[in-house]
Each structure stands twice: as structure tokens, then as C-alpha cells.
Description:
By secondary structure, the chain is of the alpha+beta class. The chain has a single domain (42-372), classed as 4-Layer Sandwich (Deoxyribonuclease I, Chain A), CATH 3.60.10. Helices cover 26% and strands 27% of the residues. The protein is built from five helices and 20 strands. The strands form five sheets. Strands 1, 2, 3, 4, 14, 15 and 20 form a seven-stranded mixed β-sheet that branches. Helix 4 links the parallel strand 7 (193-200) and strand 8 (238-245). The radius of gyration is 23 Å and the shape is globular. The relative contact order is 0.13.
Amino acid sequence: MAYRRRICFVIGRRSSALLVCCMLRQAILLLLFLPLVEARAEVRDSLSLLRLISYNVENLFDTEDDPETRDEEFTPEGRKQWTSARYRRKLGQIAQTIARASQEYWPGLICLVEVEGERCLDDLLAFTALGRQGYSYTMTHSADARGIDVALLYREPLLRLLERSEHEIPLPRGEAPTRNILRVSFALSSGPILHVFAMHWPSRRGGRRATASRRRAAALRTRELCDSLHQAWKGQEQHFVLMGDLNATAREVELREVLGSSLEPPLMLKDSLSTTGPRLYNLLSQAPEAGPRGTHFFSGVWYLFDQIIISESLLSPSSCLRYREGSARIYAGPELLAPDRLGRLRPRATYAGDHYLGGYSDHLPVLADLWLRPREKP
């Protein structure tokens, strides 16, 4: 009898220890994602509103070395000591930012810039609240030396993917390749076609003027794709949305003249679209009056590099899909900002060189809303 009691006692102690371990693990996960859980409670679904978000997430790498790219620094043994804990924290921060920026409605489209690969997106959907919102994704597979790409997350059944393609940016021979342009065409539940471009144009590293030709090539290729699509889908209600980190402001030549994005809303005439392609309007052509004056802070200056550009058709009152006036904005929650050495607020980055800061990103996200309305029956 005593022997049996001893066995029960040992088993009981092991069971208790196992229970404590499970509870401790759940508590750690809860603490890790608690801010996200709190933010999630405020976010709802909407079948009449299509929210757009574009966010450069600053080097979302997994922790494994890809022998085909230069990602060695983003490994536990690399210069940045990119551990699993830091990676999981980064995933939680991205989801938290999207939830808080969205406020009352989950976005229908999310453009993420600087993502290494599918594993990062799979983990983002597996380990955060984003995975419970019906998102699917598609992304580019560029020849970028560092292995960073552009991804587009979309919610079904609000958006039904029709076709997708990615396109290289033609650069002079000998120049390093850059990120591909991602083009995805969707059918909306209300009837129209929505062409979405997710992009990360060439950087300004080396100076704006020295690198302008690379962004000019990106703008020219984007314009060609828009014109071609507009002709291919002629006769149907179709709209265009261009999102991403373009490394150019709205007033620079690459956007204003080469791409042809207007700084002011074009005239909304009954048939005002050009015969060759859509007229484009930059929703973020003006810096906000309050808060940060841009999305990226460099050498003491704010730059509004992260753009949302729409076709003129989304300004038409008769469209089944229409821009919600005044909804384009920069999200600059206090958790995303930190003072520099001079006390100036700037994005709270993940790294400063190889020094880990634990922040969200060196960019701020941008948002805009589109209204959906059912197509009237004849």
C-alpha cells in the first residue's frame, strides 16, 4: 500500500510539474502578444469598406541562412545576432501595428515591403491574430542580392484573385538587380476589377541624383504595365492602386512626370480617362499638418517615401468602388516613435547598424480607404 502511495505521489508531482510548464508557456505567449490581443478587440470586419495599408517593415528575415542570398547577418550567429526571440518579437510588432493602425476595421489589402520569403509570411499568419482574418498572400521572388522582396496580403472572399505577375525593372548592364514589381488583379464582390501594384523601388543609397535613373526605370516600367492592363481590360469597370516604398516623394520627377501621378485630383469628367492608360492621383502628395512630416527620417529630415496612388476612376461618384475622401494618412502611434540624440522624434527602428534597438521599423505605415457599394440591378 505504501509502495502504491509512493508511485501515485511521484506521478502526481510529475503531472503537476507538467501542468506548471504548460501554464508558464501559455503565460509567456500571452505576454508576448498581449498588446496585439488588446488591439484586436477593437478591430471589426466590414463588407462595405476596403482598407489599404502599405508598410516597410525593415528587414523581416527568418533566422536561417539562405546560401543563395546575402542574409548571413540575420542569423543567430551573424553580426546582428538575429535570434528566434527577436524574430518572434518582430512578427508580433508587425501584426500589432497593422491592428492598431486599422483601428475599427481589418484592412482588405496589406502591402509589406522588405520581407525575405514565404516562411516569414507563414509565421506571421500562424503566430499572430492576422492568421484568423482570412488572409492569403502572394509575393515576389526577385534577384535582389540581400533576398528582400515585396508581399501582398489580401482577404478572401472580399477579394478574389484573378491573376498575378511580377516584372523585373530593366537596368543598364552591369548594375545590380533590384526588387521586382508585383502586379495582382482582383475581382471584387461588387463587380469591378482592381489592379494592385506592390513595389519597392531602388534605394537612394549613393545619393538621390546618382540613383535617380534607377527609379526612373522603375517608374517607366510601372507606367507601361498600367497602360497595358488598362487596354487589356477595356470595357470593364477597372481601377488601379499602387502601393509601396518608392524611395521618392510625390513631387519628384520619377513620380510626377514619368509615372504621371498627379498632385491634385484630376478633373472628374464623365469619360476623362486617357486612351492609353489610367490617370493617376497621389493620395499622399501633401505632408500632414500635425505629427511626423513623412514616413522615413534620415539625416534630420522627414521623407514621405511610402505611397498610395490610385486611378482617377476611384474618384468618380458613379463607381462601385470609390476613394473615401480624407482617409489617406500616416499612422504614427506613440509606440512607433522614439527620440534621437537631439530629442527629435523618428521611427523606432529594429536596428541602428548592428546594434539591436528592438523597435518596430525605420518606416511608418500609410493607409487609405475605399468604399464598396453593390452594383445596382438593371
